[in-house]
Task: structure prediction
Amino acid sequence: MITLYDLVFDNDVRPSPFCWRTKLALKHKGLVWRDEPMGFTEKDKIAFAQSQTVPVIHDGTHVVKDSWAIALHLEKAYPGKPLFPDDPAKAHARFVNGWADTSLHILIFPMVVGDMPQTVRPQDRDYIIESRGKRLGTTDFATVQKNAREKGVVAFRQALEPVRRVMKEQPFLSGTAPAYADYILFGSLLWPRSFARDLELLDKEDIVWAWRERMLDLFDGFGRKAKTAVA
Amino acid sequence: MITLYDLVFDNDVRPSPFCWRTKLALKHKGLVWRDEPMGFTEKDKIAFAQSQTVPVIHDGTHVVKDSWAIALHLEKAYPGKPLFPDDPAKAHARFVNGWADTSLHILIFPMVVGDMPQTVRPQDRDYIIESRGKRLGTTDFATVQKNAREKGVVAFRQALEPVRRVMKEQPFLSGTAPAYADYILFGSLLWPRSFARDLELLDKEDIVWAWRERMLDLFDGFGRKAKTAVA
Result:
């Protein structure tokens, strides 16, 4: 049985874009797993993996940290229903992975940070204010968020241009069916969706909106049914 | 015989990143072509193709504009030595294409625009100052360039992170050998290399530097031997 350590906010909300990659990869392969929620101040739970961050999986004798390493592990251990059908698909996913981690997340983070203190578990609130305050150079997250959203939504939509180019030629980033490259981008979008208030990163007319709808329907609505902190 | 319309600066320098994609694709397939240089004020030369920009190719009865459309045409007409070995490779190249056009070129352009008036053909100088001046809102290109380079080199190196992630796992963006995804990025780097003075976009320790060296060696040093306006 696979155990997945997954970041948890208050009310069992699970926002981590990196953990979403792993959950979607597990679903893709038809694997079941035992879920182990971990709050920001419970890092002792993953100390056995020499990791400070989730996702971490414990799979038999294998302990694997980092979403990309987990994807590679799952592909090797469970080769059916491949996440990367071949080497070019793997290179494509690796590129998308690096692009999301840097170009996308750097835009999303300041647009959602203001909603974090109210949505993390109460016992994690001080930790978030201190750690994210250090990163931002201020603890006035509400102002950071307000300012970031003014230009950030437009910048985010522009940053998606490479995705649009691909989706003009095929329904999913990975081809005619979703695979790991799609789960990466979808995870990045499920992150704000799970707890950021009054934020819509996509335009309804955008080809990426329609793709997201298809992704939300996958695996019996696995993403769509996920708990959110948003009313 | 294929005719390629290729942007020309003074002294027969050929900087266009989009034309480089096509020239490298032609080399990849082992095709020969007739070269037709076109200055900025000679757009009448490509009017027959209903295009305002190069590359344009004339291949038998086919007239094709836009580097991506040309790549698709070449792949169909000359299927040997594929630019995209399969559909995932094509999606990968399409993504890299959109990413270079937007994320990379937006960073490179202001860092090289100051060197354009002195390096285009004398008869194209006024056109460049007027058209690029309109885009920039100023004709003081030297100041734009100076300011852009202050933070732009660092930003460019950061933007290459997705490339680095892939190249940690394989020697070329396309896999064990170069293909179209590599030509896209290489074309973007040959652009400043051909005419921008005192600008080095890469760090010698960067894995991308070593990749660029390999790319410069390709096709008997085709990129390395290209004329430049730089002493």
